[in-house]
Amino acid sequence: MPEGHSLERAARRLRPLVGARVAAGPLAGAVVSGVEARGKHLLVHTEDGRCLHAHLGLHGSARLRPPGQGRGRHVLRTGAGDLVIAGRVELAARPPQLRLGPDLLHGRVDAAAYLRRARAVDRPVGELLLDQRVLAGIGNIVKSETLWERRQSPFQPASELSDRRLLELAATARRQLRQGVTGRLPMSVYRRTGRPCPRCRTPIRSALQGEHARRTYHCPRCQAA
Ligand SMILES: [Zn+2]
Questions:
Q1: Distance (Å, rounded) from C-alpha 218 to C-alpha 202?
Q2: N or C of the chain: less Cβ packing under 10 Å?
Q3: Distance 197 CA to ligand 1 centre (A)
């Protein structure tokens, strides 16, 4: 699943499309008025109020190719370049209601809305952080790295965490995602199973977690429940 920071980077790379008229493909004839990442969704807005909504899933991508050179199932051709999307694409008459939680990369995080959503269902904190209806933008890397940095077990029920603790986790994830937009994400535990924890040298473990069986990487000593 692309993390929020990679969608944000994609949206920034696609900015040359703003102001360009779509020559062919979905939205033909419309003028692009904005390209926006919201959580893990990419939105292409047009001046006539329509919206192309791409959900890039686990392995999707959105790339800008020189005019006339885009190939694939979803290609938006403009004089400024061809937008090639690999992923699920929908066209809408207006921007979709995405039912996302507060977006960690855009604007102020509404702490009350986040806590209300976090408290709505009880589940392990490692699953909570991946739920885009609670906070938008966190993927598997930032989840694992945030929990490691804050010495938090992924398996502890979120209901046992204080509001302050939940806010700390959101702030750390936000900082990491912002770091990822311009540079690199931290990689202390992600995909480092069996290698020593950078803090205490205990071998990193991994486990599958939640209904979608997402892998979580953790230090069993620093992040003991
Ligand atoms: Zn450790």
A1: 10
A2: C
A3: 5
